[in-house]
Structure formats: C-alpha cells, structure tokens
Design a protein that fits this description.
The chain has helices at 2-25, 29-45, 49-63, 67-96. With 97 residues, it is mostly helical. 89% of the residues lie in helices and 0% in strands. The protein has four helices and no strands. α1 packs antiparallel against α2 (29-45), α1 runs antiparallel to α4 (67-96) and α3 packs antiparallel against α4.
Length: 97
C-alpha cells in the first residue's frame, strides 16, 4: 500500500511540476500559486516536509505577485523535489526488504 501511495504521489508531482513550469513561463502568478498549493498538500500527506516548505515559498511569492522570487524558489524546488523523490523511492525499496 505504501508503495502505491508513493507511486501515485510521484506521478501527480510530475504533472504538477509541469504545471508550475507552464504557469511560471506564462507569468501566471495565480496559476503558479494554485499549482504549488496542490502539490504542497500532496507533499505533506507523504511526509515530505522539506518539499512542502519549498512549495510554500513558491506559493507565497506567487500569491504576493513577486514572480522573480517565485522563480528563485522554483530553482530551489527542483533540487528539493529530486532529493525527496530519491528518499521516497529508497523508503519503498526498504519496505520491500
């Protein structure tokens, strides 16, 4: 069950990351904030606290209309997502052992 939950989160996270990039490219602050908020909720539900914090920074910057700050937060988010993904996949592998 844990494995399936993580797989679903990671699949949806990939979709949301694409959405974040599209909204950032279009300078759509409201869309960016909304996509960050959705992904933040999912991150919280799998215990990815650092990822949720990073998404909160993107969301807050976008909600305030500060797109340059949101862009900087997105760069940090990419690294955090990669680390979170690796940790979740490692946890799934350990749960099978």
């Amino acid at each position: 069950m844990f494995r399936r939950f993580v797989e679903l989160f990671l699949a949806r996270a990939q979709e949301r990351l694409v959405d974040l990039a599209k909204h950032a490219q279009a300078a759509d602050a409201a869309g960016l904030a909304g996509a960050a908020h959705l992904l933040r909720g999912g991150a919280g539900s799998v215990g990815a606290v650092r990822l949720a914090v990073a998404l909160g920074q993107v969301e807050a910057a976008a909600r305030s209309g500060d797109l340059p700050a949101a862009g900087r937060a997105l760069v940090r988010l990419d690294a955090e997502y990669a680390a979170t993904r690796a940790e979740l996949l490692d946890a799934v592998a350990r749960s099978r052992a």
